[in-house]
Amino acid sequence: MNIVVGITGGIAAYKAVNVIRGLVLAGHDVHVVATEAALRFVGRPTLEALSRNTVNTDLYEAVAEVRHVAIGQAAELVVIAPATANTIAKLAAGIADDLLGNTVLATKAPVVIAPAMHTEMWQNPATVANVELLRSRGVHLVGPVSGQLTGRDSGAGRMAEPDVIVAEALAVASGTARLRDLEGVSVLVTAGGTREPLDPVRYIGNRSSGRQGIALAEAARDRGARVTLVAAHVEVPLPSGVEVVRAETAARLLEVVSDVAPRHDVTIMAAAVSDYRPVAVSDAKIKKAATGERLTLELVQNPDILATISAGPRGGRLVVGFAAETAPSRDELLELGRAKIARKGCDYLVVNGVGWTTGFATDGNEVVVLDAAGDIVFEASGSKMSVADGILGVFARARSGAQ
Ligand code: CTP
Predict the structure, then answer these.
(1) Are 2-174 and 186-402 equal in CATH topology?
(2) Is this structure's pTM higher than 0.85?
(3) Is residue 196 lining ligand 1, measured as CB closer than 6 Å?
(4) For ligand 1, atom 14, which residue shows the shortest CA distance?
């Protein structure tokens, strides 16, 4: 495959040499387009030796060959690693003041970018909007991940590891392979919020809309998985092409999940399960006349479905939990997530911050995926569909043994 690797001016450019190397070793014809700034971080001879091709930088070189469009036209895949905040902004605006900008505008190939920058820049509203715009146009993002940055600081913005970039980029390029990378895999997703009845007309519920769980079910279906969706109360239409089982209460959810999870390779507990239920459910409507000025409800804890299905031998089946937390900072959010995955015993935990105005009933989400050791293996922000796709990528890779 003819692959263009764009390298832009960030310190992570030194790691991008391993992206070139990985693609060349996988048998691809790699053409590096480096920005001037990139060449201040990594030398042209290194890039040429590893890519085995001339490195292109200058818009005004080989003009007779119309190189500013020829490179993009010939490409079957464009990978930009690292993609700086500046490059992302230029790509979003369609600016073509250098060879890389021209190449991207001229290509019809899939474009994969691996952002790398400091946390403040990654979280800046300008970058957030640019990334969202690129995503909506079909640009694929790999990372960034959280970790040590260039200075003494660490946080979100570190470029994904080169082997991950190579794997994701090749999966994207193979199109069908990416979309069908869960072919033959069965995925169970629980979604929505449970409702615990108090009487025939009232219940204790929560604000979960089921959007993230349903997005996961749809994304898994689109990637070729056989999907069972166990839906508690959801506020969005149920997807087609998946088997739907309704389970309104935590007790019913436990029954259904215990029954069907053993027949699924991956179980994702995205449902917001009520931690408690009323000790007694009144057969008749509770009347004010009978209860008086104050009403005290006695609640009893529901069984922990996630912990139950995580326990015991699972023979390679993956179990994934969600953690919706109202932590005041990212560090505290991660701390709660790490304690939760240790307590629940699942393989991965998708942690997201929630609040009065975030997390629920919105189309956007911001998640960090922790593995059983508490390490961050993935993080993303964006629409619930793009977040779902990214999360599934983690499990697809885990199942194929690439992680
Ligand atoms: N969960 C579950 N059974 C329960 C409660 C929660 O299976 N009775 C699952 C949820 O589906 C989710 C994960 O556990 O995948 C975490 O849910 P969360 O409400 O964040 O955690 P809790 O265990 O309820 O802990 P706490 O409310 O104390 O944070």
Answers:
(1) yes
(2) no
(3) no
(4) 306
